[in-house]
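Q: Here's a chain of 181 amino acids. Please give me its 3D structure as tokens.
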Amino acid sequence: GDEEGNWSSVVLVRVPAGAQLDLSAHNGGISFRKVNVNATAHAVNGGISLNETSGKLDVEAQNGGVTVTDCNGDIKVDVQNGGVALKLASTWKGAGLDARTHNGGLVVEAPRDFKSALEVSGSRHTAILCQDDACSRGQRTWNNDDDRILRIGAGDPIIRTSTVNGGIVVKSRTNRTDDTI
């Protein structure tokens, strides 16, 4: 009989603050949790999770999504064929976040006391759904033929996120402790 079976592995790496990493995964995911690093991460057929992470990160996923929760610093996210989920704290500390997806949806959760500037954009065919009153304090620009843009907060956006060929959901984020329930 055919006894190839399935296998999997998990590699856990503890690194000092400010460590420089270059990570790559095929058919699996990459997760950063509670670290301050200078890193590039590339996943094919798997997702990338950034949780309470800061520093300078450049992450790329193909055929998998990226989640960014309670992060800070200078973070760039590029996804092909997967979604992006952002759970933002009330203030972003650092250079900013630039998260883009092609062929994937975008979910942005910002707390009601959100103080940083956020820009969410999609193409003219992108559906943008605002839940609760998440968009009530924002400015919408989608009368033109090209992009649909929603801005929340004052000043230049330090958090920019966009999708091509995917829908957008913007909602209010409740207390961080609610995420674990």
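Q: Can you summarize the key feature?
A: The mean pLDDT is 88.
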